[in-house]
């Protein structure tokens, strides 16, 4: 985004009568970093991040649903917002009364946004109505309701008066139920590079909508008059009207597009007449049509005779100064004067009907179908029932009759009104059975019930029915034993599965297996695997509050994919129910009967350390990955679920793509430049000295690059590829940027995980290679050992052929001649500019680099190394496509050491079966 010029901003602020002090505050906010959310998260709410397409940065949120809806609205180009800045400043000295004015509170307020537009400059907050009402009912004068659903804060507005800045409070009534989902789907269609698939079809549909007034989306798409993506583009560009706050864009049964807002109002009125006042008998319908005068619109015939006569009586009383209720208006009203306020209301309704529907009578039609229940409500009794229901019905599992009896006894003791058992049964059916739970700490840790979800409080975002729109990521331990496929030894570490679950279908979008505690590397691998399989990331990704979900790497990946991160509230597992249920199904149903799980042999492992279940009971990582892949990508796609209405997931995905479109997914390529941002540094903070042969040493293995020979003796930062063990990424300096280094036996190492390679290296180190310091020799012996231990005949023959070819070229490879990259598979070309990022490094403690290689850096070399490290820390995140090769002057997007011949030998780098 191009920021507004300072001179233009000052002119705008002056025209809006912002004081000099306010102008200085606005410029100061624009030039500094935002503050943290205050509070970090609101009670019972979800926090997250919104990637702004207007401002080009991510905004931290402490109430995701409402704040994200506001940011989607401001990102809309039609809103004419010049810019906004999150958590801008603290406003101190805000004075307001508490305890109904008996005391004065002085507080510091941190607003959510500073909004700048052509007609409005000031601070904006978005709060749930329940929070504002709770504050007002508690005696605080900080917030005040000025109208139904509209709130303000007189103390804050008074404090900002000296700056000339305005203050606005928005609630959920400003957005409606469906605004967040609709704008999240439509926001990618704002991009100027969107290409219309069929311009002629778009023009035809626009003409049809303008002629008829409205068209149902299902009719347009099922009849193949227009694609869903083009229709979404027409909605975004406002060539047709769609009520974003009133209709669900993903609901094909009832959503429609209109000529304009007036056509939408007429459609709603017609639908209300058909639903609420349609007479069931044929004679009544004919009578209504006969009574209606000629100028009345056609849809007036759908109004029932009773409703039409009632409206005619109202219209007849408007010219009279004093009018009386007619007999059909009710026994208590008949003959009594009609209040002037009621007649004034009727007059305004008649004028509105004449304006919108060309019928004053239709404006006076009674909305009998909109009348709610007039049953009395007793708040104290409702609170008592909630407490009794939680304690006895949910926790103690009492019957509804016993629970109601306890409620009656307590209500009589407290002299409170009570309701019948029939009402209690109705309440019992209304309550959400997904109860809140709270985790108890201690040795006997378990979950305890902490509450339940009242009716109507479900989050609309979590009711998404569109694939690849909302997904969850979580970890689960697998009770299964894994053996090393390279040497057959049992891996004693705990096996963890990190999985991404699609909420709409329950499909496993991506997963990875690790042998250590869940880390940021596992999360990044899952994100890259989803990009590799689907070409995008879900628009919203929900995670828990674990620290590995808040890494710099994850945020950078999500910003590249324009995906939004959501943290679910602590102690509320119901917010993560899709992934929690999926994890339970994986561990209980999929793995319990497999050979090698610890359900059957756990006691033997506990009581006998010498017990090792051999081949018949153990699985390798490749076998487990193949089994999970077959279940997730073949079996589960062919069956239905409760979310898809028993429709196979594969068919459901195809149908929803036709109905909703696919351009809402930000397409992203899995390039090496994108992969670099998730790689942890090597041990010793990643510092390595470039050897004279032009290679660096990581985990006792040599990684060669022709371009590294120019930097002999210099210290560089090395980042091993956690997905492909045969690759490392070398950051030389800010001027040179990134270089890619490869092992001689890249094809060999790509077939094994990092854990398996380190296990074999450790075995060789204590055996035939004890005391060996040459990393090139270690790599050669490792490849020979892997070939010797390979049990798959087909793969063993293929590796043997590669070994022969590589050993024949060994002298050239070890000397790293200019054409050495032709003798082994090179990584894919870098498509975009390199994006550097850092996360906390992970070290392979089993097999560290020999101490002889980690020489002390004397004098000037130490200073140079420290300077290189500081340059990487300061400059790596901003290197991007500007990193230029020192020798050739070319950028990372066109590396000089890659040639067109590599295309025949290019290896597809995929996060397949790696374990960390």
From TrEMBL:
Taxonomic superkingdom: Bacteria
Entries under InterPro entries matching the protein: Integrase_cat-core, RNaseH-like_sf, RNaseH_sf, Transposase-like_Mu_C
All copies of domain Integrase catalytic, residue ranges: 463-656
Biased composition (Low complexity): 854-877
Gene3D superfamilies per UniProt: Ribonuclease H-like superfamily/Ribonuclease H (3.30.420.10)
Any single Pfam family the record assigns to this protein: Mu-transpos_C
Organism, as annotated: Paraburkholderia nemoris
First and last residue of the signal peptide: none
Region (Disordered): 845-916
Protein name: Integrase catalytic domain-containing protein
